[in-house]
Amino acid sequence: MRIKSGLAGFLLTCMISCNLGESSQTDTLSLTMNANSELMTTEIQMDTITVNNISFTMIHVEGDTFTMGATPEMLEPFDNEKPAHLVTLGNYCIGQTEVTQELWQAVMGENPSKTKGDKLPVEEISWDDIQQFLSSLNTLTGMKFRMPTEAEWEFAARGGKLSQHYQYAGSNNAEEVAWYDTKQTNPVGQKEPNELGIYDMSGNVWEWCLDWYDENYYQNVEINPQGPESGIYCVLRGGSWGGSEKYCRCSCRAGYSPDLRDIDCGFRLAY
After folding, report:
1. In Å, what is the CA distance from 238 to each residue of 33, 107, 137, 209?
2. Which backbone phi and psi does 175 adopt, to 5 degrees?
3. 3-class DSSP state for residue 130?
4. Would you tell me the crossing angle of helices 101-108 and 127-141 to the nearest 10 degrees?
């Protein structure tokens, strides 16, 4: 795989490094990035997992301390993105793409989505539905998949430790990385990836996160936060195909009832 990003100026080359068995393998993304007129090369580890003949990829994210919320590059932020505050995260993995309809079908035996297509993100699923999917997926794989926390989602969308401080996930030009203001969902992985090689964290479908939604951020430093202990709404991130580019910013956030099913709500995996 060789992809060129016009704005970020980076190349991604996929190289198989080892095989973990029939159901998973570990690969490496060798990433050369043009940052401040200097070429920097790093490697990003990723796991490819196969379930009932359907494969998907998880990107390893190296933890760090970052500023979450309405940082200066986030133009016209909403009040619920404030105040910007420090968050420290450990290492984790997150889906390279949103969960597709073919993966949901392979695990659950049915496809609830309104707009059908194997490579389209699954939609018309609630936060509660996802818990059933995770239970079935973990039984099939013997792994411990979960939803990303809101902080993990934002850190990955910003590019992790490789962040170039873009407004959207991989660019300051939403057209390069996001599906928005369109008529329906689009196949995953068609736009440019972000600095970590992750696709569609801006636009396509809103993505459910693990946390209960809190309207307010707090100024204190947080370590591996998981949101409030309880609530009425759950967090959604990333904007969608039906909204404007403003909702595709990395810091934009929303909260909806966990039983909501909608044509622009999906998710991605973490562990």
Report:
1. 24, 25, 24, 10
2. -60, -30
3. helix
4. 70
161 Cβ partners below 8 Å, 6+ apart? 62, 64
Q: In terms of residues, how long is the chain?
A: 271
- Please say whether the beta carbons of 84 and 68 come within 8 A: yes
pLDDT of amino acid 267:
98
Chain center to CA of 7: 20
Q: For residues 52 and 107, is the Cβ–Cβ distance under 8 A?
A: yes
- Round the average pLDDT of the chain to a whole number and report it: 89
- What is the signed CA dihedral for 193, 198, 201, 202, rounded to 10 degrees? -10
Instruction: Please state, in angstroms and rounded to a whole number, the distance separating the CA atoms of residues 151 and 132.
Output: 23
| DSSP 8-state assignment for residue 152 | H
Least confident window among 55-69, 217-231, 233-247? 217-231
pLDDT digits (tens, 9 = 90+) for 114-133: 999 999 999 999 999 999 99
- Residue type at 5? S
- Tell me if 74 sits within 8 A of 239, measured CB to CB: no
Is the pLDDT reported for residue 162 higher than 90? yes
The one-character DSSP state at 203 is B
Q: Which residues of 66-97 are buried (b: 16+ CB within 10 A; e: fewer)?
A: bbbbbbeebeebeebbeebbebebeebbbbbb
Q: Measured at the alpha carbon of residue 140, what is the angle toward residues 136 and 145, in degrees to the nearest 5? A: 65
Per-residue pLDDT, averaged over 28-55, amounts to 73
Close Cβ partners of 232 (under 8 Å, ≥ 6 residues apart): 212, 213, 257
Q: Give the separation between CA 45 and CA 61, rounded to whole angstroms.
A: 8
What is the pTM for the complete model shown? Answer: 0.88
pLDDT in the model for residue 218: 87
